[in-house]
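hey can u check if this looks right to u? its 184 residues, i copy pasted from the old doc so theres a chance i mangled smth
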Amino acid sequence: MGGAVCHPDAGRIVPQLVKTLIPTLQIRHTMIICKFAFIFEFYMEPVNNQLFVYGSLRSGFNHPAYAYISTHFTLVGSAKVKGRLYDLGSYPAALPTNDEAFILGELYTLKEEQEFSWAIAQVDDYEGVNPEPGETALYVRKVTTVYINDQTTTAWIYWYNNDVEGKPLIASGDVLEYLQQKKP
């Protein structure tokens, strides 16, 4: 009965495999402590804990979902992102663009960084990011460039994940202004 032998490149291969599985993991040192166990000294890259909102999660909407945002996130200020905004009737849809078209909204930062996974999962559920089996996600969460106070930063945004053909464009990029103009 033979024993297992460590591959001579295990110290290089295993960290690469782990890095592939967990992209934010930065491995500083690997030490083989037996044939199958490794010790990794690592640190995690900072998680982006900012969120850009442009619809019902904005403070001016007075939507019940805003109560959640204001409890777990702090308003940084009014901001904008490159994109186009469409009127889907009961909610807006944002699509990214490289053109000089902007969506106006608000930038928030998470109050408690260690709660990021839980807090953002709640917003994901609200935005329809995790659909039932066989359904398409209504929105996808992506990191985007945010323009605020003549500076840029990055934040999560929820981009619409379906077709907007035939839907009215919100030319101003500001859904609050658009809805106020639509009122009789």
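The helical segments are 10-21, 64-72, 116-127, 175-182.
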